[in-house]
Design goal:
Elements (H helix, E strand, L loop, with lengths): L4 H10 L9 E7 L6 H12 L6 E6 L6 H8 L1 H4 L6 E2 L8 E4 L16 E5 L5 E6 L9 E4 L4 H7 L2 E7 L8 H4 L6 E6 L7 H12 L4 E6 L16
């Protein structure tokens, strides 16, 4: 794997400092699958965990493949082994809902937050989430819930929350949840000269009430190429 330490340090510095005592939620996404947004989200969380006083959470909006959990498991030598699963919701809230709801053995409704697990990464102060799709039964399906409840609950426990948002060609999660993010960073691949899709996603996020505060030009390039300057927020 390419060492992105210097790029992550630069990206982290470019995001600025939050208000004193306030946690922040930073979404990393891209206009197209394959541009490397998940890698950047994972590396930024890894970097942030060494910089902040409280914990860092990497929240994976991929409710199908749980790619962040899989990637961290596969690279335990680099990041550290994952802990046993714990509940990833402080109060039972979630950024999704499972319908129709399941019942617990005593007849109560199984909370949506019970489907989301968290694993500590090595001995560091960071955690990664995984949607437990194997818990779905019968005709159950999962749907996004565009509210601030889960994010506000998690802010009380984490200093930085990095959100890995799938590209819109796979899911509308990044766009639907953009209003509840403090910052959104768009990742653009170095070998993609066509910037129409990133520009359209930027405009859609802003139109939905989100804030695009950064661009990351992937493949380890630090200086922004000329064709990217028109996209800069």
């Amino acid at each position: 794997m390419v060492d992105l330490s210097s790029e992550m340090a630069e990206l982290w510095a470019s995001l600025g400092s939050p208000a004193a005592g306030r946690s922040r939620v930073i979404q990393i996404t891209a206009a197209r699958t394959g541009e490397g947004a998940s890698t950047i989200a994972r590396e930024l969380a890894h970097h942030a965990a060494r910089k902040v006083g409280r914990s860092v959470w990497l929240v994976d909006l991929d409710l199908v493949t749980a790619s962040q959990h899989a990637a961290l498991s596969a690279e335990a030598g680099r990041y550290g082994a994952l802990s046993e699963a714990v509940q990833a919701s402080p109060d039972g809230s979630a950024f999704f809902t499972v319908q129709p709801p399941a019942q617990t053995p005593d007849g109560a409704v199984w909370p949506d937050g019970g489907y989301l697990a968290a694993h500590r990464v090595g001995s560091a102060r960071w955690w990664v989430t995984r949607f437990q799709r194997e818990r779905l039964i019968g005709r159950q399906s999962v749907h996004l819930v565009p509210t601030a409840d889960y994010w506000n609950a998690l802010r009380r426990f984490a200093e930085v929350i990095i959100v890995d948002g799938p590209a819109p060609d796979r899911s509308r999660a990044a766009l639907a949840l953009a209003p509840f993010m403090d910052q959104t960073v768009l990742v653009v691949s170095a070998d993609q000269a066509d910037v129409r899709a990133p520009a359209q996603l930027r405009d859609a996020i802003v139109g939905a009430g989100g804030q695009v505060t950064g661009l990351f030009f992937n493949r380890g390039v630090v200086e922004t190429p000329a064709f990217m300057k028109a996209l800069a927020p």
